[in-house]
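Example 9 (inverse folding). The structure is encoded as follows.
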């Protein structure tokens, strides 16, 4: 056999083993088992990816190609292990498009050194083996006369080996795909194995990696081809939608007709920090308004924000263009509303300036538009205060900080504008962003503003209790910091309510508040703070993702209490419900299928609105959590097979909707919404 063929075989076999080891390590640490569900598919992908090693006689190509393949997979393994450690997440190609934003908020507490060392160890093994092979063939397998004659015959044998490996890889793949199709026939209604993997890779990544392996997942995720039939499927889906406030109505349809709308997305908005004494304005809105007590969310801030404005969201990296008719601004602009967006952060973060313009907001205000001088430090947790952004330093006890802050007007007269013009204002807050154990500057602000003293007083009176009082002091201190941040938000909301009253617009305004995600930060390398808050260590228990959702309007509140005897909404809900519910309440006609979820008031039960997490690419209700529609990372002890069957059916329908919207945005099929 040609000496270079032998050398490449040494490299090929080693790479097959090494990539398999990467798969085994990933599966063992993340999924607690060594093998994927369909190992033959992963083996086939390894064989196919490594086949080009033989196509070029030069060993430099073999070494270079092997190094690139190994480096990519070794890095992805390290990223997977780190993401799983930090937030029970796994890698997706879409995260490449979020690298700059992720780097800005990255914190050393999210890094596990052991996983970095594993990646380094594998890299050393790779390097040592390549050096060994190079030396072995350089000094012990020298060319003889016969080999020199055979050298002219390298390519016939090399091409033959390449064809053989590709053939075996293809056969293994066909067998594996046929098995996938057979196993999922009832769920996916005869869909091909390849399309099943494609759908799951683009909607259920953790389950897809667990079932099919990392290489099959990556291969399916980057498949950008769309057929005419798949386009027609999107078109037919939207055409089949019924019109809310025409074909479909409920007891609350149109109750807020022609009213103003203010939506506030609270960064890390959670109910435990809403307190009658410490956050009286938030408490009033929650107590008097419709309190969605079973609301959940698990997405990055920008994703939850888009969902709360659009009702759906593109897969990250697909598009930053949301010029679709279904956005809240676009739906309301044509009805005589003026729409404005507000955020304490920079306009360039997540490209919000471009995003908000594409969504249809007629005006947008960012940190640089209100005050460009304040320090803004993600790592240290020092953010512009919500009360400062709302009021400037001219109102209330913000005067205490007049020597450290600029003399600005704030957004108060913009979020509630003068005149009779109907308006839709959307504000994404900032103060309650983590981490909660490093913001020394802001904690000094909170002390000077009297927040810390008020917390101590309330605790002494028994009107407030540290939710982590049984945990380490580090957790307790973070809760105090977080509570201070919510108190600062409360001051801002209070000023907004006063402005609404002064302008006689309070009763004619629908106020919506919701949280983007749970408190997910870790505590100095210890367990994530949410585990301490909820006294649970199962990272997939839905209660960990409980977030705030409140809808407040006097007329709405009274009607709801008249019908139900209280103002608590206990069905499962999420940010997906916000846009269709607001439009329903305003009496605006809309196609129900333009949104992932129903109006909350059209939901018959909690399983009508199963939540899809774009961050985890998983589905959950308040009682079950699944990555792949067949297995459960969590299920409540009280649920039976009937519930799980109903959950699976609802989860599949939600997953199908996500597939449709992914295809819609990825291919910019905006004309299909008419």
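The amino acid assigned to each position is listed next.
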């Amino acid at each position: 056999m040609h000496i270079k063929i032998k050398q490449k075989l040494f490299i090929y076999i080693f790479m097959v083993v090494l990539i398999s080891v990467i798969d085994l390590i990933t599966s063992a640490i993340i999924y607690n088992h060594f093998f994927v569900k369909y190992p033959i598919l992963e083996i086939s992908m390894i064989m196919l990816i490594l086949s080009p090693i033989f196509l070029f006689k030069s060993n430099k190509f073999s070494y270079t190609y092997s190094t690139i393949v190994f480096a990519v997979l070794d890095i992805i393994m390290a990223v997977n292990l780190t993401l799983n450690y930090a937030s029970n997440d796994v890698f997706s190609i879409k995260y490449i498009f979020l690298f700059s934003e992720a780097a800005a908020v990255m914190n050393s507490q999210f890094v596990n050194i052991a996983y970095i060392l594993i990646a380094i160890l594998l890299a050393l093994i790779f390097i040592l083996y390549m050096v060994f092979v190079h030396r072995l063939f350089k000094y012990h397998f020298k060319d003889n006369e016969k080999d020199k004659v055979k050298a002219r015959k390298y390519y016939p044998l090399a091409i033959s080996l390449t064809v053989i490996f590709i053939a075996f890889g293809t056969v293994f793949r066909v067998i594996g795909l046929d098995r996938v199709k057979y196993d999922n026939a009832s769920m996916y209604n005869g869909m091909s194995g390849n399309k099943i993997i494609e759908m799951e890779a683009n909607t259920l990544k953790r389950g897809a990696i667990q079932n099919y392996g990392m290489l099959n997942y990556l291969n399916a995720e980057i498949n950008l081809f769309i057929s005419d039939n798949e386009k027609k499927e999107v078109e037919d889906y939207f055409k089949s939608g019924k019109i809310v406030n025409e074909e479909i109505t409920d007891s609350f349809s149109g109750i807020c007709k022609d009213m103003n709308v203010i939506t506030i997305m609270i960064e890390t908005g959670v109910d435990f920090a809403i307190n009658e004494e410490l956050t009286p304005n938030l408490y009033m809105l929650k107590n008097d308004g419709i309190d969605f007590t079973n609301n959940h969310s698990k997405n990055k801030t920008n994703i939850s924000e888009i969902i709360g404005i659009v009702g759906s969201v593109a897969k990250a990296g697909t598009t930053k263009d949301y010029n679709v008719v279904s956005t809240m601004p676009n739906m309301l602009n044509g009805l005589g509303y003026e729409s404005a967006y507000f955020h304490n952060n920079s306009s360039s973060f997540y490209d919000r300036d471009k995003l908000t313009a594409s969504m249809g907001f007629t005006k947008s205000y960012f940190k640089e538009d209100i005050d460009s001088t304040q320090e803004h430090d993600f790592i240290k947790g020092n953010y512009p205060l919500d009360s400062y952004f709302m009021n400037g330093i001219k109102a209330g006890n913000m005067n205490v900080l007049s020597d450290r802050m600029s003399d600005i007007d704030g957004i108060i007269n913009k979020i509630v504008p003068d005149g009779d013009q109907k308006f839709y204002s959307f504000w994404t807050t900032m103060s309650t962003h983590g981490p909660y154990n490093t913001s020394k500057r802001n904690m000094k602000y909170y002390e000077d503003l009297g927040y810390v003293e008020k917390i101590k007083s309330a605790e002494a009176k028994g009107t407030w209790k540290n939710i982590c009082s049984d945990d380490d002091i580090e957790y307790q201190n973070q809760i105090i910091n977080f509570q201070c941040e919510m108190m600062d938000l409360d001051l801002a909301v209070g000023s907004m309510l006063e402005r609404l009253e002064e302008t006689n617009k309070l009763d004619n305004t629908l106020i919506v508040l919701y949280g983007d995600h749970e408190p997910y930060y870790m505590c100095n390398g210890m367990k994530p703070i949410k585990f301490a808050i909820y006294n649970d260590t199962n990272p997939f228990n839905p209660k960990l993702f409980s977030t705030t959702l409140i809808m407040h309007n006097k007329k709405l509140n009274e009607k709801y209490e008249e019908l139900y005897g209280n103002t608590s909404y206990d069905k499962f809900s999420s940010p997906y419900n916000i846009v269709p519910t607001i439009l329903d309440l305003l009496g605006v006609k809309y196609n129900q299928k333009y949104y992932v979820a129903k109006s909350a008031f059209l939901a018959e039960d909690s399983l009508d609105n199963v939540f899809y997490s774009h961050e985890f690419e998983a589905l959950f209700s308040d009682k079950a959590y699944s990555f792949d529609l067949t297995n459960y990372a969590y299920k409540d002890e009280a649920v039976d097979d009937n519930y799980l069957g109903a959950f699976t059916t609802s989860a599949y329908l939600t997953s199908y909707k996500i597939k449709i919207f992914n295809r819609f945005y990825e291919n910019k099929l905006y004309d299909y919404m008419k």
